[in-house]
Every structure is written in structure tokens, then in C-alpha cells.
Amino acid sequence: MCIIFVAVEQHKDYPLIIAANRDEFYQRPTQPSDWWDESPGLLAGKDLKAGGTWMGMSRAGKIAALTNIRNPAREQAEARSRGELVVNYLSCSTNEALFEQQLSDSCEAYNGYNLLYGNVTRLQVYNNHTNRFTPLAAGFHGLSNSALNTPWPKVRRGVTRLQEYISTATSLDYDALFNLLQDNTPAAQHELPDTGVPLEWEQRLSSIFIASPDYGTRSSTLLLVNHRGEVTWIEQEYEHGKKVSPPREFQWKIVQE
């Protein structure tokens, strides 16, 4: 998952709105979102290479999503798969304090990541490079391949568009939210961050929606939870920048464990 936009307590009907894109190499095998047989009550896509996922939610209302931190100088060839962190959080019954201690203790075992996790009323982000936990206050947030709310052009653009839309929409149009996630506007060269990759890649990765010959946005996901605890999860898949099938939609009501 490469970019996540979150609105916390910003819409009269939906206390939580998440709009996210997963970017990955096209050749990496993937299954779309569905309920997992091996982890009952877990809805997520699946990375068939390593067995984890980039974003998921449980029937009981636990939420987790992952973005990588782009820093080639700190990459480890033998690092553990970051996708297991999302599965671990959603499928285990470990209390929050113990889970957070485990994240902190294992921070060097993984390449750079941000883990967004929690539930509708309490979300936070853990950054393993800083070993820091940051709660999400009411408002709009953007998370890409650096720290939470780092003002990269695509983060600013997405947060601004989400804020403008939600502030004027009485009822939410899913197509409008997907349109935000399909924004392929690149950043101006002078605005590009310097993350240690070649300038050509910085430019290629600077839009919310990415389409290149070998790498790009593989799926967009909308997650909305209303005041009654009713969840709507919609996923749109892509290949080489084109939609490959109708969106997959799941709805349920959160049932506390």
C-alpha cells in the first residue's frame, strides 16, 4: 500500500473514511479482497508471494493498513515481510499494549514501514524507522512513503481534495472518492522529495495513481464506517493503469468480540 487518506470525524454520517491505493510490481501475484478461510472474520486482499496483506479489517472492527517507507539506503535483503504485520494485528487477540511492545521490539527485523491500526474510534500510526506511535486526531490525514502527514505533493493534493469534497457532500458518492484515488497528476520537478531513488523514479512515483510499464497502482480501496457501526468496503483492481473488473463490495455491521 503506497498512499492512504483518512478522514476522522469529518462527515456527519461517517466518523471514519479511508481511501487508499496499493502500488506494487505487476508481476507480484495477488488475490483481491475477500474473507479469509484461514482467519475467519478477516477481510483483506492477499499477497500470494509472502502470504500477508496491505490492508484489512475484521468483522469486530479492527483495522490495519501498511505503507512502505522509501529509503533504499536502509533496505535489508533478508528482512521479514511487512504484510504479516497487518495479518498479525487483525487475527490475534493480543492486547494493544503487548502488540505495541512487539512492534517496537521487532522494528529492525523489517524494512521501513508505517502501520496504521486500531478501530473506528482510535487509530494510530507506528513508524518503525522512528520507533514512534502517533495517534490520529480528528481531521484529515495523509500517509505515503514517509512519516504521517509528510507534505509531499501527492499527500497534500489528496488530503486537500478529500477535505474539499467531504466539506460539501451531504451524501458520499463512491465514484468521487475513487476519482480522487485515480488522480495521476505528477508533481513538479522542483517539488519532488529526495528519497534516494533516481529522479526518473521520484517523478514516476509522485502522483496519487501510478502507471508505469512494470509497477503501478494495483488496487484502490474505500472503507467507510457510519455511526451505526455499518461498514462498506469497496475495492477496484487495475492492470497497467486500467480497470480490470467491476468493483468488489462488502458490507457488514461491526460485532464486538
3D architecture notes:
The chain has 257 residues and is α+β, with helices and mostly antiparallel strands. It has one domain: 4-Layer Sandwich (Penicillin V Acylase, Chain A). It is built from five helices and 14 strands. It has helices at residues 83-91, 96-105, 153-168, 174-181, 199-204; strands spanning 3-8, 16-25, 30-35, 42-47, 55-58, 63-68, 113-119, 122-127, 132-135, 139-143, 215-225, 230-239, 242-243, 248-253. Strands 1, 2, 10, 11, 12, 13 and 14 form a seven-stranded antiparallel beta sheet that branches. It has a seven-stranded antiparallel beta sheet with strand order 3-4-5-6-7-8-9, with helices on one face. Strand 11 and strand 12 (230-239) form a beta hairpin. It is globular, with a radius of gyration of 17 Å. It starts with a strand and ends with a strand.
